Structures are given as structure tokens and as C-alpha cells.
Cell shape-determining protein MreC
Amino acid sequence: MKPLFSKGPSLGVRLLVLVVLSISLMVVDARFTLLQPVRSQMSLVLMQSYWITDLPQRLYQGVASQFGSRTELVAENEKLKTEALLLQGRLQKLAALTEQNVRLRELLNSSALVNEKVEVAELIGMDPNPFTQRILINKGERDGVFLGQPVLDARGLMGQVVELMPYTSRVLLLTDSTHSIPVQVNRNGLRAIASGTGNPERLELRHVADTADIKEGDLLVSSGLGQRFPAGYPVATVKEVIHDSGQPFAIVRAVPTAALNRSRYLLLVFSDSRSPEQRATEAAQAQEAADHQGQAAGAPAQAVPGTAAAPATTPPAAAAAPVSGHPAPAATGHAPATPAAAAPAAAPAKPAHGTSRERH
């Protein structure tokens, strides 16, 4: 008699098949890019789950903001007014400095951007792996985000985009153990490399000479070397400098200026993507075009007072009267440079200058 329910493979066989399949998928995902389209499509589904899981917190924040006391709101309003007034005063000074910087760059024939374009993004997830420092933002490839794009918050640089999806992106933070950024000391311009340690509150400066002029409290800013991060943005503040007489390099530890564990709203920097060679070529072409325009504008003004242009529109006899009292040199249409040059003009062997002989 045939059994009512057919018996399939045992649970051990099923588990073995699933384990082998999982290991194969992990190896393919780590070694190749075949699963990248699948990952991008799955992100569309996961984005909805991120939105749903974040919904309770947003509802709580909305309700809490509605029931805030009037006293706290008034005090916060006064504080914001004071800060806005201070920032407006600083903005006036920065505007003057920006205009001065623009004029200096024009004198230096530089085509670098003074202010970069930025776009606001929101943090929607974090990597659960404790050995990596990565976050997920709600801007992706369809928003113009590109690989390697710098990301910063209100206090300083946070990291760069390392993975793109249609509507989301993954950002590698500065403190990741695989990340490094070229920096310089804002006080004296000393250059160094700041590397991540895996700790979200610490960076280390590698290969800094033991005699280097760096001390606790120095501000480290991005140097712009490598053309990946824009120059001048705060990166970290030196917290500790350890000198060991037996070692050639000092141990320098710094604290990131950006709130890597607390910032929710970030800025994506859209800087100039042209290479230095392209910028130099375009600047040279612009300068050459400006020179040609200047020469074209100055050519008619130089032809008016000169005596050489007069014979083109007037007879030689008419042009000779205002220039010189000697008609023979004027008949040639050129100003007499020397007496030797004027003598052949009056020779009777040249019938073309008949007017000069008639006047004699």
C-alpha cells in the first residue's frame, strides 16, 4: 500500500544542503560582483523595512515635540536668535574673505571651486558587524551619489561612500580600521596620515617623526592630497602625543571632530571631479581666449595714429602733407627711418612715385 504522505530527505541532509548553499553564496559575494544586482534590488525591499522599524521613533519624537513646554520653547527660541545673530556677523566676515579668495584665485589663473555643492542625507541604518564602521544613508545612485564621495556632518568629515544602491548608499567611517585620510596640522601645516582604529572615538597618526611639531589640542584638517577629500575640513583633534626616545616615531592619538555615533543628518559633498590636468588645460585655454580677445579689441586703436595705415585709404601725396615737409619720403608710404632709406625713394628710376617728381 502506498503511504499517504511521501517522505522527503531527512533533516540532516536538508541542513547540509542549506549550509553548503550559504557558504557558496558568501564566497561568491566576497570574491565576485555577480550578486551586486541582486543586492541592489533587495535594497528596494529592505528600504521599506527600515522605514517601518524607524516609524515608532519618529512618532515618539513627533508626539514629544507637540507636548514640549512653552518655557523651553521660548528659551530655545531666544538662544537660536542669539546664535543666528552671531553667525550673521561671522558670515559677513566670511563673505569678504570669500570674495578676496576668489580674486586671488583669478590672479593665479586657478579654476578650483571655492565652495562645494552639498546635499543633505539622513542616516537610516548601521552595520551590525562590530569590526567594521559603516552606516547606511537614504541617498543612492539615482540621487547623484558616486563612489568615493565625501560625507560630513555639522562638525567635520565622517567618511566616504563605498557602496551604491539605487536609493541608498553605504558610508565607510573614518574610524574604520581599513580607512586612512591625509591630514595636516592646522597650526603649522605639518602633513600626516590619520588611520582608523576600529574605535569610533579614536584615530591614530602613522609615521610621525618623534621630533615633529605636534602637540595636544592641535586641530587636524583634510589636506586635499589624493583628490578624494576636499581640503580644509576638520577631521580630528590631537588628544595624546607619546614620545619614546627608543622609537623613531611618536605615538599620536586623536579624537574625531564629527559625531560619528550621534549624527543623524549628514552632508554629501559634490566637489569638482575634474583631474588637475583637465583643470590646468581648461585654465590655459581660457587665458588664451582672453588674450586673443584683448588683441582683437586693441588692434583698431593702434592703427589710427600710425602713419603706415594712411596710404591704404589715401593717395601718397595726400598722406605726405601732414607727416613731413619732404614729399619724396612720404610717397613711399613709410616714415623715413634714416637718410639712407629716404634717398632711393626720390630716385627717378622708380616711375611709381611720379607724384613726388611732379611736386619737385
